[in-house]
């Protein structure tokens, strides 16, 4: 994934070499053994219903006010799709993007980073109106909510079913890396304390390609722990094909 520096040359599961954000952990929806969007049953809340979408929120980065972390709106989808297609050599289905707006779970646990250019200075020599800067999407985090430990196991006092955030994709344009934007995107999800508590979210996790050393280090520095053994053959077209699960308890 990303962090201070998050780009590493890797080969995607179609064999194309590219500089991708190490946060692209699942590489392709079809490579997952069990995709969260196709589980039988949805993530469980304390009230037995999926979480409601959050109201539209925007947060400016204190150290870089021209960059904001924001909820995703319908008008963000076309540039967001182009951005993802440019950064990641992976063809995601249209629902991967539209659900970030329309699905109450995906929209609650996904965020967009926008760069807002400076407003041009007015000139006394012209009466032309000053153009309003158009925010530019520069990256995003796309997450889903899954039961833990397993959707098929009934809850019990000794083995309760919690929810966990699955980071499906995290990408950022190269000029805006090394600025803490990737960390801010993740933090914007994890700081929703009331939402996490309401829906019994206890963990956040991701799959990371075994050869992506920068990604492995990024997660470790942010309190994630490598869990279990290497999942052999997780990626169909990457070489090597293994993935590690990194998980972090949300306190």
Topology diagram in text:
Layout: E1 7-11, E2 17-21, E3 58-61, E4 64-70, H1 77-87, H2 94-102, H3 104-108, E5 110-115, E6 136-148, E7 162-172, H4 181-190, H5 193-198, E8 201-209, H6 213-221, E9 225-231, E10 243-249
What strand order characterises the main sheet? 3-4-5-6-7-8-10-9
Number of helices: 6
Alpha-beta content class:
alpha+beta
Poorly predicted sequence stretches spanning 5 or more consecutive residues: 1-55
CATH architecture: 3-Layer(aba) Sandwich
Range of helix content: 10-25%
Mean of pLDDT: 76
Rg on CA atoms, Å: 19 Å
The third-level CATH topology is: Aminopeptidase
Total number of domains? 1
CATH superfamily: Gcn5-related N-acetyltransferase (GNAT)
- Separation, N- and C-terminal Cα atoms: 21 Å
Tell me the strand percentage band. 25-35%
The biggest beta sheet is recorded as:
8 strands, mixed
What do these coordinates show?
Helices cover 20% and strands 29% of the residues. With 251 residues, the chain is an alpha+beta fold. It has a single domain, classed as Aminopeptidase (3-Layer(aba) Sandwich), CATH 3.40.630.
Gist?
Helix content is 20%, strand content 29%.
List keywords for this structure.
251 residues, Aminopeptidase, 8-stranded mixed β-sheet, two-stranded antiparallel sheet, 6 helices, 20% helix, globular, disordered N terminus
């Amino acid at each position: 994934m990303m962090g201070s520096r998050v780009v590493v040359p890797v080969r995607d599961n179609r064999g194309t070499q590219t500089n991708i954000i190490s946060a692209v952990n699942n590489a392709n929806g079809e490579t997952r053994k069990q995709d969260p969007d196709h589980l039988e049953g949805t993530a469980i809340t304390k009230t037995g219903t999926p979480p409601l979408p959050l109201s539209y929120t925007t947060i400016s980065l204190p150290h870089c006010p021209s960059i904001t972390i924001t909820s995703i709106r319908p008008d963000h989808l076309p540039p967001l799709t182009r951005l993802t297609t440019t950064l990641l050599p992976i063809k995601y289905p249209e629902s991967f993007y539209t659900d970030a707006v329309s699905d109450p779970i995906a929209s609650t646990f996904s965020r967009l980073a926008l760069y807002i250019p400076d407003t041009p200075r007015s000139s006394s020599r012209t009466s032309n109106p000053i153009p309003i800067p158009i925010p530019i999407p520069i990256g995003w985090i796309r997450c889903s909510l899954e039961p833990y430990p397993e959707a098929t196991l009934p809850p019990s006092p000794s083995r309760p079913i919690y929810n966990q955030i699955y980071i499906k994709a995290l990408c950022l344009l190269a000029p805006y890396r090394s600025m803490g934007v990737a960390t801010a995107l993740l933090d914007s999800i994890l700081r929703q304390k009331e939402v996490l508590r309401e829906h019994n979210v206890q963990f956040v996790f991701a799959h990371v390609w075994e050869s992506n050393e920068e990604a492995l280090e990024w997660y470790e520095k942010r309190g994630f722990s490598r869990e279990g053994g290497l999942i052999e053959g997780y990626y169909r077209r990457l070489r090597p094909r293994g993935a590690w699960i990194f998980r972090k308890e949300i306190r």
